[in-house]
């Protein structure tokens, strides 16, 4: 398994799109944090509350999630596009071992980059807003929440890439499931609509970033629901990867 992990790490760090996509993730987080935090500070009548300051610092998550999900798609769909998956499967005939290696290496990479981007975004945002009543525990919670959430978004993209195999199709599916359909779900009428919206992909996952519950979900249970969505996409992709030709 060590050789598989080394191979996947070499693939990820040697592809130019990886560097650009991760840089875009960091830039979106930090740039939007600075822009929105400065706006919040400029329009505030007095000191900015700690909760509002942290929320403004992390609003870039909404866009960074798409960047890192796109990279997750490219980790596997690019191999199908170029035919490199055949070489990978010749080297590692056990397809589940290959997919596990991709998940572990990409997950670890995403977590490190997401943590650095989140820390930078929070630092920049708080430098602008300077809330007087901010507790260190809230900063740690926001950092952990945003890091885990972005990592899950990246793995969601990898799962969809495994499932669809076609880069544009998988990216469109990621945008729909993570950005478009959650907003549509919020508009559904009645009690059943509220339940669907509450448990729908990023609506549930973002509770960990916000640090606030919604309906019957706490931040951690909401993140658990989102992880379940990620697991379903990944397991479905793994099953088809076993059954389909490369």
Please give a structural write-up.
It is a single chain. The chain is mostly helical and 246 residues long. It contains twelve helices and no strands. The protein has helices at 2-14, 16-43, 50-57, 61-82, 84-91, 95-129, 136-164, 167-185, 190-198, 201-205, 207-210, 219-243. The longest helix is centred in the middle third of the chain and has 35 residues, at 95-129. The model has no long low-confidence stretch (mean pLDDT 87).
Keywords:
246 residues, 0% strand, globular
Give a nutshell description of this structure.
The chain has about 250 residues and is mostly helical. The chain contains twelve helices and no strands. About 85% of the residues lie in helices and about 0% in strands.
Query: Structural class from helices and strands?
Result: mainly alpha
Largest sheet: none
Outline type:
globular
Number of strands: 0
| Relative strand content | under 5%
What does the radius of gyration come to? 19 Å
The low-pLDDT segments are: none
Share in helix: over 70%
Order of helices and strands: HHHHHHHHHHHH
Global mean pLDDT: 87
SSE topology sketch:
Layout: H1 2-14, H2 16-43, H3 50-57, H4 61-82, H5 84-91, H6 95-129, H7 136-164, H8 167-185, H9 190-198, H10 201-205, H11 207-210, H12 219-243
Helix pairs in contact: 1-6, 2-3, 2-4, 2-6, 3-6, 4-7, 4-8, 6-7, 7-8, 7-12, 8-9
């Amino acid at each position: 398994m060590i050789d598989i992990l080394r191979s996947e790490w070499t693939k990820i760090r040697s592809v130019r799109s990886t560097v650009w996509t991760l840089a875009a993730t960091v830039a979106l987080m930090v740039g939007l944090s600075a822009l929105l935090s400065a706006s919040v500070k400029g329009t505030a009548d007095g000191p900015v509350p700690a909760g509002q300051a942290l929320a403004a610092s992390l609003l870039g998550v909404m866009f960074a999630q798409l960047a890192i999900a796109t990279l997750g798609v490219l980790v596997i769909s690019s191999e199908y596009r170029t035919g490199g998956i055949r070489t990978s499967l010749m080297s590692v005939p056990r397809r589940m071992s290959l997919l596990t290696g991709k998940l572990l290496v990409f997950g670890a990479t995403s977590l490190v980059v997401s943590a650095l981007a989140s820390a930078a975004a929070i630092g920049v945002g708080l430098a602008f807003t300077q809330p007087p009543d901010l507790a260190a525990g809230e900063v740690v919670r926001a950092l952990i929440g945003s890091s885990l959430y972005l990592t899950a978004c990246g793995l969601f993209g990898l799962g969809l890439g495994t499932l669809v195999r076609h880069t544009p199709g998988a990216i469109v599916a990621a945008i729909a499931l993570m950005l478009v359909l959650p907003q549509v779900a919020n508009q559904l009428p009645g009690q059943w609509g509220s339940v669907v919206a509450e448990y729908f992909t990023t609506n549930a996952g973002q509770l960990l970033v916000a640090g606030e519950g919604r309906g019957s979900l706490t931040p951690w249970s909401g993140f658990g629901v989102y992880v379940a969505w990620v697991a379903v996409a990944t397991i479905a992709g793994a099953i088809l990867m076993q059954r389909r030709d490369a």
